[in-house]
Amino acid sequence: MNPEFSYLSEVSAEKGNLIKGLQLIQEREGYVSDDGIKAAAAHFSLADAEVEGVLTFYAQFKRNKPGKYQISTCDGTACHIKGAPLIQEWLTTALGIKSGETTEDGLFSIETVACLGCCSLAPVMAINGRVYGKLDRKALLKIINEYKKQG
Ligand code: FES
Fold first, then answer.
1. What are phi and psi of 121, to 5 degrees?
2. Confidence band (pLDDT; 50, 70, 90) for 60?
3. What pLDDT, on a 0 to 100 scale, did the predictor assign at position 37?
4. What pLDDT, on the 0 to 100 scale, is given for residue 64?
5. Residue 29 C-alpha to ligand 1 middle, in angstroms?
6. Is the CB of 133 under 6 A from ligand 1?
7. Which of 28, 37, 40, 99 is surrounded by the fewest CB atoms within 10 Å?
8. Measured in whole angstroms, how far is the alpha carbon of residue 130 from the centre of its chain?
9. In the predicted structure, residue 121 carries a pLDDT above the cut 90
10. Distance of alpha carbon 32 from alpha carbon 65, whole angstroms
11. DSSP state, residue 65
């Protein structure tokens, strides 16, 4: 097995532990890469495609390396009503990526979440856990530009 993933030996190699193993990979790497899939398949004696199937089924797993700045856009009910789809659109225009993707320079990634727990500030997004609320296009672009400047 790829030595990078030798920590998988912490999980016993029964097939029923596959999810646990994948969670461990995501916890350590921040996502599950193609190499991670191969390592899990080898550890649990499964085909790569079987592991991939499980990953696709469970939304908790990320397949792309998260950006330095992880943007979580809320699409819970309150945010949706207050324009969450527009937030997604503006971000896609500004960064050239959709939810679930990472910019080529590795700086930004976007994920969509169900509720960030601050509905009164809708529409809301968080960057590396810091919440930005009552967003409009101008405010959003200003925030993104500040992060871009920090590099
Ligand atoms: S619905 Fe967006 S923070 Fe709750």
1. -100, 10
2. confident
3. 97
4. 85
5. 28
6. no
7. 28
8. 15
9. yes
10. 8
11. P
Give 33-57 pLDDT, tens digit per residue.
Answer: 999 999 999 999 999 999 999 998 9
In the prediction, which pLDDT does 3 show? Answer: 87
Q: Which domains does the chain have, with CATH numbers?
A: 3-57 (no CATH), 69-150 (3.40.30.10)
The number of the ligand 1 atom at minimal distance from the alpha carbon of 122 is 2
Distance CA 98, CA 102 (A): 8
C-alpha 97 to ligand 1 mean position (Å): 22
- Ligand 1 atom at minimal distance to the Cα of residue 84: 2
How far is Cα 37 from Cα 47, in angstroms, rounded to an integer?
Answer: 9
State the distance from the centre of ligand 1 to the C-alpha of 85, rounded, in angstroms.
13
